[in-house]
Automatic annotation (TrEMBL):
Pathway: Porphyrin-containing compound metabolism; siroheme biosynthesis; sirohydrochlorin from precorrin-2: step 1/1. InterPro entries: Met8-like (IPR028161), NAD(P)-bd_dom_sf (IPR036291), SirC_C (IPR042518), Sirohaem_synthase_central (IPR028281), Sirohaem_synthase_N (IPR006367). Its EC number is 1.3.1.76. One of its GO terms (molecular function) is ferrochelatase activity. This is precorrin-2 dehydrogenase. Signal peptide: none annotated. The lineage of its organism: Bacteria, Bacillati, Bacillota, Clostridia, Neomoorellales. The keyword NAD applies. GO terms for biological process: siroheme biosynthetic process. The keyword Zinc-finger does not apply. It holds the Pfam family NAD_binding_7. It comes from the Bacteria. Keywords: NAD, Oxidoreductase, Porphyrin biosynthesis.
Amino acid sequence: MVYYPIFLQLKDQPCLVVGGGQVGERKVEGLLKVGARVTVVSPEVTPHLAGLAQEGCIEWQPRKYEPADLKGKVLVFVATQDRLLNAQVARDCQAVGIWVNVADAPKESTFLVPAVVRKGSLQVAVSTGGQSPALAALLKKRLEKILRKEYSAFVQFLGELRPILKQKFPEDQKKRARILRKLARDTKLLNLIARGEKKAARERVDQWLSGW
Ligand SMILES: C[C@@]1(CC(=O)O)c2cc3[nH]c(cc4nc(cc5[nH]c(cc(n2)[C@H]1CCC(=O)O)[C@@](C)(CC(=O)O)[C@@H]5CCC(=O)O)C(CC(=O)O)=C4CCC(=O)O)c(CCC(=O)O)c3CC(=O)O
Ligand SMILES: NC(=O)C1=CN([C@@H]2O[C@H](COP(=O)(O)OP(=O)(O)OC[C@H]3O[C@@H](n4cnc5c(N)ncnc54)[C@H](O)[C@@H]3O)[C@@H](O)[C@H]2O)C=CC1
């Protein structure tokens, strides 16, 4: 199976996690990182999830799943140890057109969760199409080492330059693209940003742009 990779904007979006064990906890953490509004339905939860509920970071309903829990949710994750229940939640979601991730059955899922390396706005997501989560996790660890942490600041810097370039060359998208591609592979620029020398980086860009 080949999956379509996308990055979702979930800020303040109501998401449901059914089952608050170790796996449910990992899904909750991923959702909180992007500012989603998380409800957990589960008779018992991990101590960490109980703490998050206490602090008001998530809503915890300490009971079994009911179909009405789906109302108003944009994404659902089901991670109980009960195979039949997980399959039931998947069916309920698909019947009403809600995207659902089933922790123990990739085939019943309408989306999978990848392993992710994050450096600020830069994210690299790894999926094996559900074939080997262990390999996805291993490749993530390797990518963590390859992708310099400075990419976080570099991506932000390049992001700030884009609107400036749009203003400078409003009519010529091709020219902007050529410039942005060149800046993205400018190692000297990356190194300046890595050393925190943003002013010198801007000077390098300005000097270089004046030649265009
Ligand atoms: C289909 C998918 C559905 C979903 O989205 O959850 C799924 C399904 C299953 N995982 C299982 C097992 C394990 N999962 C992990 C770890 C992760 N699993 C994740 C995603 C996914 N797991 C989706 C596909 C991703 C892809 O496309 O590759 C990660 C990447 C993201 C996350 O969950 O946050 C996260 C790493 C996060 C990180 O490190 O950053 C480990 C590793 C470990 O624990 O060390 C193991 C043990 C080793 C192994 O089995 O490989 C089992 C068998 C359970 C059993 O045997 O009972 C199933 C069910 C089945 O395959 O039937
Ligand atoms: N996708 C993944 O990455 C992985 C998936 N799995 C699978 O994920 C599932 C969950 O694994 P764990 O978190 O380790 O299990 P767990 O047993 O620690 O947690 C399951 C949770 O589901 C809750 N639950 C049980 N019945 C419920 C119901 N009717 N309604 C709502 N909540 C209910 C329990 O109270 C418990 O908190 C298992 O099927 C396991 O095989 C396991 C490892 C990795």
